[in-house]
Amino acid sequence: MPSLGKYEIGIVGNGLSAYLVLKHLVSLAPEIKVALFNSSQYNAIEGPAYLKNEKAHFFLNTPSSKIALSDENAYDFCDFLGLNAEERDWHFASRADYGKYAKSKLALYDSYARQFGSATDIKRSREGFEVYTNDGIVSCNKVLLATGNDFDNAWQGVIKSVWDFDYSVLKPTDKVIVIGTGLTMFDVAGAISDNCNQVTITAISKSGLMPAVQPVIPSPPIPFEWDRVTRISLFEVVKQLRKNLELANGEWWRALDGMRPVTIDLWNNFSVFEKKQFINHLLSKWNRARHRAPKQVFEKVNNLIQSNTLVIKQGRVVQASANFVKLADGTILNADYVFYAGGAISNPFNSSQPFWQNLKEEDWLVSHPSGMGINATPKFQLIGKNGNPVSGAYTIGNNMRGTLLECTAIPELKVQAKKVAAELLGN
Ligand SMILES: Cc1cc2nc3c(=O)[nH]c(=O)nc-3n(C[C@H](O)[C@H](O)[C@H](O)COP(=O)(O)OP(=O)(O)OC[C@H]3O[C@@H](n4cnc5c(N)ncnc54)[C@H](O)[C@@H]3O)c2cc1C
Predict the structure, then answer these.
(1) 314 forms bridges with which residues in the sheet?
(2) Protein residues with CB under 6 Å of any ligand 1 atom
(3) Residues 324-353, mean pLDDT to the nearest whole number
(4) Would you state the pLDDT for residue 95?
(5) What is the Cα–Cα distance from 147 to 355, expressed in whole angstroms?
């Protein structure tokens, strides 16, 4: 394969994370030679989250005042939307608008990196890494995996690109099954009802739980406190959370929000056994309470449930295709369309993408012991099979879930990107 040149840093992925890191690299070291490996699936910066769909409107679950990309102006996104001071604090914008905004802030960094096609494999070399593309091999001293959210589950025929699906093809007599009952199901159910409000929808998940609704007005969080010197067990964390929930007196989100500033520290203080216990028994409840739907979205879904247009069902899907879903208890449900809304793959090695299949053989890139994401230090450096940090290999975003737990929302990515850029430059 032809050599396509040598670069100091290779960034695999072209979503928001990749561009945020690129922005910091350019400001810290303007002469740096960066190679950027682009997705063949999604447009740069917008990724799956912020793409524009003429037939459906999807909303952010983060208030517009909390996701500015500017470091100087917290209301930068609100200003972009033209919101006034009364509107801006608890406003939820459309994700397509956020995509436009993010591109207006970050697309200028395109010219600071040499653009290549998708990475198909990465091998370690004497100087660092060789990143394979369909056109040739790019040598990079350091690599950053900013591969983001992967929805490539194994079921053939199931609709996975739910955000760019043409919902106007649905007919009133159609039956739809949605695998998942979280925020993506809210997106799908909302888009279906906007296009054809007689379609019947069955949404299925293991927990049968839907996300909670955002409070109408924000109220002060109840801080989660511990001395940070002594280890705190998962059992003690749950006990203290229960106490804080009592203090919250019905406003349960105040107790949850009070944990946000310390979530990463708490997560890091747990043993691998506790992390697995949390993932197996508490993660779906945590997600339900943490990832809340804006009121207008929640009410729309609730109305669909009230009118029996949407039915929520508890069950474990063991098989699915374009027209049916099989549950663990043997039930088979037929449908005209089956949508996958089960969230991004938590361990990228479960992806059927050739890139991850090829990387399975490598000893410098392994799953996190918790089973979520890939193994990395809290400073974003990969940890190899031998348990040691791998020189020059880093990751950001969804791949960091095992190390950080909460790491994919925009405010978190902003913080990570700054730190990752400094690590990549050895600062
Ligand atoms: C539907 C959805 C809604 C969301 N809503 C919100 C919200 O309201 N508020 C909030 O704070 N956060 C939200 N998020 C979180 C979101 O994950 C982040 O905000 C952000 O978009 C993630 O950016 P990323 O670059 O890490 O990943 P992505 O956007 O997934 O980008 C990664 C890119 O890398 C590409 N890639 C993967 N492998 C390769 C390869 N081998 N070679 C080249 N390219 C590759 C992918 O195809 C993709 O385009 C949402 C996420 C989703 C999926």
Answers:
(1) 205
(2) 12-18, 37-39, 41-42, 47-49, 60-62, 67, 118-119, 146-149, 355, 397, 408-410, 413
(3) 94
(4) 97
(5) 10
The predicted structure's pLDDT at residue 229: 84
Q: Are 300 and 193 in contact (CB under 8 A)?
A: yes
Residue nearest to atom 26 of ligand 1 (CA): 148
Other residues' Cβ atoms within 10 Å of the Cβ of residue 318: 11
Name the 3-class secondary structure at 179: strand
Model confidence pLDDT, tens digit, residues 62-117: 999 999 999 899 999 999 999 999 888 789 999 999 999 999 999 999 999 999 99
Positive or negative, the CA dihedral 50, 54, 55, 61 is positive
Query: Which atom of ligand 1 is closest in space to residue 18's alpha carbon?
Result: 25
pLDDT in tens, 13-37: 999 999 999 999 999 999 999 999 9
Considering the chain, tell me which residue range(s) the CATH 3.50.50.60 domain(s) occupy.
3-58+94-150+345-424, 167-213+292-340
Copy the structure tokens of residue 124. Answer: 């370690």
Selected from 1.10.287.110, 3.50.50.60, 3.30.930.10, 3.40.50.150, the CATH number assigned to the domain covering 3-58+94-150+345-424 reads 3.50.50.60
CA distance 55 to 182: 21
Q: What is the largest CA-CA distance in the chain?
A: 65
How many CB atoms sit inside 10 A of residue 83's CB?
17
Per-residue pLDDT reduced to its tens digit, 120-162: 999 999 999 999 999 999 999 999 999 999 887 778 999 998 9
Superfamily, domain 167-213+292-340: FAD/NAD(P)-binding domain (3.50.50.60)
Q: What is the whole-number distance in angstroms between the Cα of residue 107 and the centre of ligand 1? A: 16
Nearest CA residue ID for atom 14, ligand 1: 409
Q: Which of 290, 273, 264 is nearest to 403 (CA)?
A: 264
The answer to whether the predicted template modeling score (pTM) of the entire model surpasses 0.85 is yes
Residue 165 CA, distance from chain mean position: 19
